[in-house]
């Protein structure tokens, strides 16, 4: 039986962590085990992005009163404690976002500056290619579909990207598209009400975790 709670999405611009003062403050808000994991990453941008996403995950886990700490399995998939909830994490500088749900889910942010044409050629389905052709192969839509594919991979771990189309969501699910200039920001969650919040990293690091922009749908 699924634990009863709404799906929650938390998003933030984490560029402030470029400042060593804020980076150190952020490190002080995570466990020693998590610090070792962050500090082992290279280059610095990877540490910054992982730290920002970890902060958001910890906030959401605490807010939703879910038992256990975030960890990653041997395949890099994130889990919480005894898996009473599903979690998905994404980061693409300067942004990070997390979704926690009682159902399998996926979240992804992609920059539109990446040229996805070869990926489209080799990994998009005929339905996806037709959809893009009908829309003049618009770069924003190309990136949006790739972001959705990343969401689907995190939701289901398919073996072949060409075996599923993301023009429409799986049965009982919904794709949520958030507006983010020059980026695609997609979430795949159960077709049920959800809560989305944006938090300011400065407020978070200064102890004002409740100062958030919140919307419920």
Which helices and strands appear, and what pairs or packs with what?
Elements: E1 7-13, H1 20-27, H2 32-39, H3 44-63, E2 70-72, E3 78-80, E4 86-92, E5 95-101, E6 106-111, H4 117-123, H5 126-134, H6 139-156, E7 173-180, E8 183-190, E9 194-199, H7 201-205, E10 212-216
CATH top level class name of the domain at 7-111 and 174-216? Alpha Beta
Strand content: 25-35%
Number of helices: 7
Question: Which regions are unreliable across 5 or more consecutive residues at pLDDT < 50?
Answer: none
Mean pLDDT: 91
CATH overall fold name of the domain at 7-111 and 174-216: Ribosomal Protein L22, Chain A
Coarse morphology: globular
| N-to-C span | 24 Å
Order of strands in the sheet with most strands: 4-5-1-9-10
Spell out the helices and strands N to C: EHHHEEEEEHHHEEEHE
Q: Main sheet?
A: 5 strands, mixed
Tell me what the CATH architecture of the domain at 7-111 and 174-216 is: Alpha-Beta Complex
Structural class: alpha+beta
Instruction: Return Rg in Å.
Output: 17 Å
Number of strands: 10
Assembly form of the protein: single chain
As a percent range, the share of helical residues equals 25-40%
CATH superfamily of the domain at 7-111 and 174-216: 4'-phosphopantetheinyl transferase domain
